[in-house]
Structure formats: structure tokens, C-alpha cells
Predict the structure.
Amino acid sequence: MDLLAQLFFARKICRTEDLPEVTNIVFMGMGEPSDNVEAVTKAATILTTRELFQLSATKVMISTVAPSPEAFLKLAEAPCVLAWSVHAANDSLRKKLVPTTRYSMVELRQGLIDALNKRSNPVLRTTMIEVALMAGVNDSLQDADDLAEFVKPILEEVPGSKLVVNLIPFNDIGHPIFQKPSQETVACFQKRLWQQGIVTHIRSTRGDDESAACGQLATKRRRDDMNINLAMP
């Protein structure tokens, strides 16, 4: 319930400091939510309860890497929007980017389709497909075409569904292989998806000038710790 406490105090700070209100919550980067379904579902329920935090279910998103098709069905019980960290539609490439993958992308996609169809509220049949773009790895126009073909069955098989692809340019963490793609490449990837009828947004990067963007803090800490250990006699 750490997230609930953080939101409680964040709202208090926003009120006292005259800052914009916190209106959206995303469960992401805190471990795989399907490994802790009961607690995650309870937290999402508290966030969307009128007498408590009063957030709309459409303003709460749970992001999963989808370790299994059943993971979607479990998370579909929570009052939230489901997001899937796909990163690549191609099975072999996805396996390299997400080594924990044990199912084919078609099997996982069917799990998401079943979970969305299980939801009685059509508003919650909205889903987000997340792709962390890495230069020369998964940012080609062919990768965009593969992704477009992969997500189309979700729109076709889930009545009233809405799907958004969220492109996340990889943040520079000093990795020897994975690097940030150029803005032009990301824009071309987005345009290719739009041309095929797929609503696509590019997530803006914040904090990278101070190494505080997504993925940078933990990596910088590990590098610093490694440097300290190497320097010790």
C-alpha cells in the first residue's frame, strides 16, 4: 500500500503548495503486477472508490509484461485500464527483449482479448500497447508494420474497444547495445502506425538531463555502487 500513502501525501503537498492536482496513476516499474494481483487489485479499488480517492477507473492504469495469458484475466478484475509492455511483435525479438517470455505473442494477445471481452463496462475495454524503442533493435519501419498487424485483431475482436500505442524512446543509461533512437526515427515509426489506422503517441521524456528519467536512477545507482566496489582496496 506504499502507492496509496504516496498519493495521499502527494495530494496534500499539491494543496499546500498550490500545485496541479494528481489526476492519473500508473502501476509501472514496480515489479510485475500479476505477481501480486490481490494487493494491486485492492489498491486500484481503493483509488477508484468514491468515498476514498475518487479517481475514475479510466485514470488508473496497470501495466504488465504479461508473463502468461492468464495474467490479463487476473488483472482484468481490477477497476483500471490495462496496458501491455509489448516492445516487439516478433516472437524471437520479443524473447530477446523480454527473456521471461514463455508464450507466443499470439497466445498472449488472445489472453488480452479474452480479458477485455470479459469486462462488462465498454469504457474499460480501452488498452494501451507500450513499446520502448531502441536504436537499431526494434525501431525500423518493418517493426512498425509488424506491430500494426499484431494489434489489429484486438480492435477487431473486442467490441467497442479503443487501443493506443505508446512509444517510449529508450533513455540513455550507458548500455553498450541498447541506445536511444533519433527523434526522426521515432516520428517515422509513429507516422507509419498512424497510416495504418493505429492511434499512436510518443511519451515525452522528463528528467533525462539529470539522469532521473525512467530506468536511469536505478542504473546509475548500480554503476555508482560498482565504481565504489572497484575503488575499494
Q: What stands out?
A: Strands lie at 25-27, 60-64, 81-85, 126-133, 162-169, 200-202. The first strand starts at residue 25 and ends at 27. The first helix runs from residue 2 to 16. DSSP finds eight helices and six strands in the chain.
